[in-house]
Specification:
Layout lengths: L7 H4 L1 H22 L5 E5 L3 E5 L6 H14 L14 H10 L19 E3 L2 E3 L22 E9 L3 H4 L13 E12 L1 H9 L23 E9 L12 E2 L20 H13 L1 H5 L6 E3 L6 H12 L1 H30 L32 H30 L29 E7 L7 E11 L21 E3 L9 E2 L4 E9 L8 E10 L2 E9 L7 E4 L8 E2 L1 H7 L46 E2 L4 E4 L4 E7 L11 E6 L5 E4 L1 H6 L1 H13 L41
Antiparallel strand pairs: 1-2, 3-4, 5-6, 5-9, 6-10, 7-8, 7-11, 11-12, 11-13, 14-15, 15-16, 17-20, 18-19, 21-22, 22-23
Helix pairs in contact: 10-11
């Protein structure tokens, strides 16, 4: 059939395309055999350029590798001729030339300007050339010095590890020791500014000390402390005495015997001082086995501030406890409401939002819903609990701001606390400096001052200083300025007495005074109360805790066996309770809070004997008389004061009102009450049984017909 309207080209277009494609294919195949085949150009070492087929491209490389392998395995390779080096001639030629110090560090010679910063660290500028001079370095004084005096019981085994300490301790155990800790702050950032600042500001005469002389190489080598017993009329310190610190602990600088040591030797001392920076600047106090744990002056001041707010703290703690009791009571009410009245709907704590009967009424059997009033009461209690829980959290945070935990126990000085991070000397604006004075005498008053010694960054660089300044580089150690003297600090005496009541005489008897006496023994002040009449000496006997809780160690036997240090009995150290005041968190023993009467079996450690059962308190004072205080009875109430003869033969007048309100009396009385519980472990608080859980509505069994009540026979 003849197609109409379609030309011959249109009818055969696919045949034409197929023919053209076949022709091209045949042409490509012919070129592979008739024309030049594919090649790649290879640049082989020692053979010039080569053109090879792709499948032959790696053959030259293989040949080269085989040749190298053959050379490596050659047992007698051809060696190059050794060159001749004339070291002697080279040294003599250089030795004869004039010595010129290198003005810059080669690696930094090309740096222009004040320096560059790499990853935040400054890279020092070149050492200035010319007639520049460097300022004489002055080390700043520490900040105003703080002190704290304390007395506690030293671990007797420390004398085996450090025999030098034995000379500072009492002759017999327990080693009750009074001491003073001194604290200051050093501004390392300010010292760094002194090193980096151009003194004249314009760089015309003086230049800042090159950073490469001191960066990452400065250290506190020692902390020097002096004490005095007061000042004369001209303001001069009386008997200033160096404080030697804790015997047996030597600093790296102590090994330096010469004033101008070798540079390498001195650098070793500086590096060791940097590695042991905490031991140099913040040495630990001796280990304590009984009494108040050691606190730094800053911590002691903070603790005193906390105790000054004790009334407010106790009020907040009591309010917190009442709030928690109310929460517990409301939770019990919820439990009771869940048991009666057909059950309570699940609360938001028991089920997800949207699954309560109120939110899904179509899913709840109306016959099992509680009454509307019961449900409203449950919701009201839940809202009240949520509000009280917020109050508890706010109260807890407020107590933390005051420095105590939920029980009112200070958070300061707890065992296992993290040590503060010790910054590098030149990066710390307030580096803490600590020193201890163990040579104090009981009852004496002292004042202290402090300074630091650091390494001299100019030491060893004399050839790079002007001739008249080269002596500055011969001093290895720089001594800083003294701080101001601290306020007076009084060390506790051996025994004290306080008059808590006095009467000139009445129908019951003649003049008399009520006196409380204190003596420190085995970590705590021990208290005796006596009623004295004129002519009576103040002497009394105090009953101590269980003697087995106050062990006296046989140090010779311990040294012979070389055992580990003894572990204090539980409770002998207030740190065991987390209370640096030595206060029992659940109540103190003593007349006001009797100690528990439960018998406790105590096993003495090996190589220890029990301590004494009683202690004599004798402040060696005699009551002379009791008389009315002149002008003190204007309100109609008479007040009296007591007169005592002191051991020194002088007359002491004691006012009961002042004695009873004194901080020393309150502190010693608290310590004596804590000492009554010495060695007794904390009782385990019995937890109240948890109320039974509320049964959810869907968990309740389906009540039987008839209302779910068991049938009963009714009388007819």
């Amino acid at each position: 059939m003849k197609l109409k309207g379609i030309g011959a080209l249109e009818q055969n277009v696919e045949k034409i395309v197929l023919g053209v494609v076949g022709l091209v294919f045949l042409l490509v195949v012919a070129m592979q055999f008739l024309a030049k085949p594919n090649t790649v150009e290879i640049q082989a070492r020692g053979a010039g350029k080569q053109r090879l087929r792709p499948d032959k491209a790696f053959e030259p490389i293989g040949d080269m590798a085989q040749g190298l392998l053959t050379q490596m395995r050659d047992p007698r390779p051809e060696l190059p001729e050794a060159s001749q080096v004339g070291l002697s001639q080279a040294w003599q030629s250089r030795h004869g030339a004039a010595f010129v110090p290198t003005p810059t560090i080669p690696a930094l010679a090309a740096i222009d300007g004040p320096g560059v910063s790499i990853a935040g660290d400054d890279v020092a500028a070149p050492i200035p050339e010319g007639d520049f001079r460097f300022p004489q370095i002055s080390v700043p004084a520490p900040s105003p010095v703080m002190t704290v005096a304390f007395v506690n019981t030293i671990d007797p085994l420390v004398t085996l590890r450090s025999p030098e300490v034995r000379n500072l301790l009492p002759r017999e155990q327990p080693f009750d020791k009074a001491a003073v800790t001194i604290e200051g702050r050093f501004d390392g950032v300010r010292f760094k500014e002194l090193l980096t600042t151009d003194p004249d500001g314009d760089g015309s005469d003086f230049a800042a000390i090159p950073m490469q002389w001191w960066k990452d190489s400065m250290a506190v080598l020692s902390v020097d402390v002096e004490r005095c017993s007061g000042f004369d009329a001209q303001g001069n310190a009386i008997s200033p005495t160096p404080v030697t610190g804790i015997p047996g602990r030597t600093l790296p600088i102590a090994s330096l015997s010469e004033e101008t040591p070798a540079v390498e030797r001195f650098q070793e001392i500086v590096d060791l001082s940097r590695d042991e920076a905490r031991q140099v600047t913040q040495p630990r106090y001796l280990p304590v086995i009984a009494g108040t744990p050691w606190l730094s002056p800053t911590e002691a001041a903070r603790l005193a501030d906390i105790e000054s707010q004790r009334a407010d703290i106790d009020r907040r703690v009591a309010l917190l406890e009442r709030t928690r009791e109310e929460i517990a009571s409301l939770q019990l009410q919820l439990q009771e409401l869940g048991r009666g009245g057909g059950g309570a709907p699940p609360t938001s704590r028991d089920s997800p939002r949207g699954n309560t009967p109120r939110d899904n009424p179509q899913q709840t059997d109306p016959g099992t819903q509680p009454a509307d009033s019961n449900r409203q009461r449950i919701e009201t209690i839940e809202r009240r609990i949520e509000q009280l829980q917020l109050d508890v959290e706010r109260a807890r945070l407020n107590l933390e701001d005051l420095g105590v935990d939920e029980a009112g126990v200070p958070l300061i000085g707890r065992p296992g606390g993290e040590e503060e991070f010790l910054d590098d000397l030149l990066e710390s604006p307030d580096m803490r400096l600590i020193a201890h004075d163990l040579s104090v005498e009981p009852g004496k008053t002292y004042q202290y001052r402090m300074r630091v010694r650091v390494n001299n960054p100019l030491f060893g660089h004399g050839q790079q200083l002007p001739e008249d300044q080269q002596p500055l580089a011969t001093v290895a150690v720089l001594t800083g300025a003294w701080s101001d003297w601290s306020p007076p600090t009084t060390v506790d005496g051996a025994e004290y007495y306080f008059v808590t009541g006095a009467n000139q005489g009445d129908d019951l008897g003649g003049p008399r005074a009520s006196v409380e006496m204190f003596r420190f023994y085995y970590g705590y002040w021990r208290r005796a109360v006596v009623a004295a009449e004129p002519g009576d000496s103040l002497v009394a006997t105090v009953k101590l805790p269980d003697p087995a809780l106050l062990p006296i160690w046989d140090l010779a036997a311990v040294a012979q066996r070389q055992v580990a240090p003894p572990t204090p009995q539980p409770g002998t150290n207030p740190r065991d309770r987390g209370d640096p005041r030595g206060r029992d968190s659940r109540g103190l023993g003593g007349p006001d809070n009797p100690a528990p009467t439960d018998e406790q079996v105590v096993t003495l450690p090996e190589d220890a004997a029990p301590g004494p059962a009683n202690l004599v308190v004798d402040p060696k004072a005699v009551l002379l008389d009791v008389a009315a205080i002149p002008g003190a009875n204007e309100s109609g109430t008479s007040r009296f004061q007591a007169y005592f003869r002191t051991p020194a033969g002088s007359i002491a007048i004691r006012d009961p009102m002042k004695d009873g309100r004194s901080a020393a009396y309150a502190r010693m009385k608290a310590s004596a009450l804590a000492g009554l519980r010495q060695g007794q472990p904390e009782p385990v608080k019995e937890e109240e049984p948890a109320p039974p859980p509320v049964r959810r509505q869907q968990d309740r069994p389906t009540p039987p017909p008839g209302g779910g009540r068991p049938g009963g026979g009714g009388g007819g």
